[in-house]
Amino acid sequence: MRNWTMMMTVVFMALLPALFIGSGSFAVAGNPLEGLSQIKQGRTMRSSSCDVDWQAGNADARPIAPGETLVIAELEGPGVINHIWNTVAAQDKGYSRLLVLRMYWDGEGIPSVEAPLGDFFAMGHGVDHPFQSLPVTVTSEGRARNCYWPMPFHKSARITVTNEGSSVVGALYYYVDWQKLEELPANTAYFHAMYRQEFPAASGKRYLIADITGTGHYVGTVLSVRQHTASWWGEGDDFWFIDGETEPSLRGTGSEDYFCDAWGLREMSTPYYGAPLMEGYDPLSRTTCYRWHITDPVNFKASLRLEIEHMGVTFNEDGSVRSGFEERADDFSSVAFWYQAEPHKPFPAFPEGKARLYEDWSKLVEVESRLDSAKASGGPISLQEGIGTGKGQLWWTAAEPDQSLEIIMDVTEDGADELL
User: Could you give the C-alpha distances from 18 to 117, 135, 150, 194, 208, in angstroms and in order?
Assistant: First the structure.
């Protein structure tokens, strides 16, 4: 632990492009702490979920009913958001994909940020899982989400969270920390984040991560993959078409190479890249990886198109390997992050809540709800309350080897069912 702490200190001290100093610059050269001795311009502000009765109350969260939208920030500029934190108490399985985060700058009618809450904070699949990186860090077993992307605006900022789940979000706690300023630099660009998915990735073409029109620079990718077949999914290369070019000027050598690892991926996180979720190479295994282009942003003057191949190992019907580099039909989803100066073109239609999950969790049957039908050849059956989702979990302790448990489940609709 001591060595890791020392390494992180060195990395952050040497590379952090952090501080917003005055109204003329977003960064300080050299030691990022040296600017702390300078008097800062502007006024420190916050929009939070604190109790309206802040002197006596402790109701420091907001509920969100199904289908409703909560405004978590309505700010008057000029200013720059420099930190967003949140944590959620929700019953819906996969809730972080059912909650949609949107951000609007300077009165625009369509959002510049539109992504599931979890995916925006660099963890896909509706999964809670911790990791550490420079602009995004998630702790508390994946439940405390923090981002530090600078988000400037001239006139106004509006941030909303929409619940597209079937159950009430019992509590959304949040901070939006920002600086109110007299003015912003003339070359200030707006922050953008766009979600896309293909379940599975479309045959015959590369997976599209970003298709941008305007002037700006690209700063990050989050990619989530759920495998349909076994083995390695990530032989696909990344291709960058800048300013309308037909031959990409940036070409990659493999998916794990773009995400700065090698010889496959393994679970890890660093300031600039990582695979914080990597379940393995079996069918239905899930991976989420990120690549932040903070020290190496991809600049564009007119347009940028980023694509990645969905290539890897494929198999014959008898189970033998057919190819080590062939198109695969895995589930792909992504968030692209960038800054651009002028208004962006409309994003593609945002997929509805249930379509962002692999299963329809609204039809989930909790096994403890069938406790009255459970029968065992020996040993007690009980309910453990307060564990898992629903009422808890069914608990059976066999009295001796080779005993069995039987539970009767009603199937009321045609279609595929799955035991989890």
Answer: 24, 10, 9, 23, 30
pLDDT of residue 360: 59
**In contact, 100 and 162? CB cutoff 8 Å:** yes
Q: What is the pLDDT of residue 405?
A: 84
Q: Which of 263, 262, 179, 259 is nearest to 220 (CA)?
A: 259
pLDDT digits (tens, 9 = 90+) for 168-215: 999 999 999 999 999 999 999 999 999 999 999 999 999 999 999 999
Q: How confident is the model at residue 417 (pLDDT cuts 50, 70, 90)?
A: low
Please answer whether residues 397 and 379 qualify as being in contact, where contact means their C-beta atoms are separated by less than 8 angstroms: yes
**Secondary structure letter of residue 256 according to DSSP:** H
Closest Cα partner for 73 from 95, 46, 55?
Answer: 46
CA atoms 44, 49, 54, 60: torsion sign: negative
Q: Beta 321-327 vs 311-315: how paired, if at all?
A: antiparallel
pLDDT of residue 413: 66
- The string over 40-66, giving b where at least 16 C-beta atoms fall within 10 Å of a residue's C-beta and e elsewhere, is eebeeeebbbbeeeeeeeeeebbebee
Residue length of the chain = 420
Q: Looking at the predicted structure, is the pLDDT value of residue 100 above 70?
A: yes
283 φ, ψ (degrees, to nearest 5): -55, 140
Q: Convert the pLDDT of each residue in 327-364 to its tens digit.
A: 999 999 999 999 999 999 999 999 999 999 998 555 56
User: Which of 134-166 are b and which e, b meaning 16 or more Cβ less than 10 Å from the residue's Cβ?
Assistant: bbbbbeeebebbbbbbbbbbbebbbbbbbbbbb
Strands 99-105 and 156-163: antiparallel
Distance of alpha carbon 104 from alpha carbon 89, whole angstroms: 25
pLDDT digits (tens, 9 = 90+) for 259-285: 999 999 999 999 999 999 999 999 999
Q: Answer yes or no: are the C-beta atoms of 45 and 125 closer than 8 Å.
A: no
CB–CB of 242/293 below 8 Å? Answer: no
Average pLDDT, the chain: 89
CB half-sphere exposure, 10, CA atoms < 13 A: 6
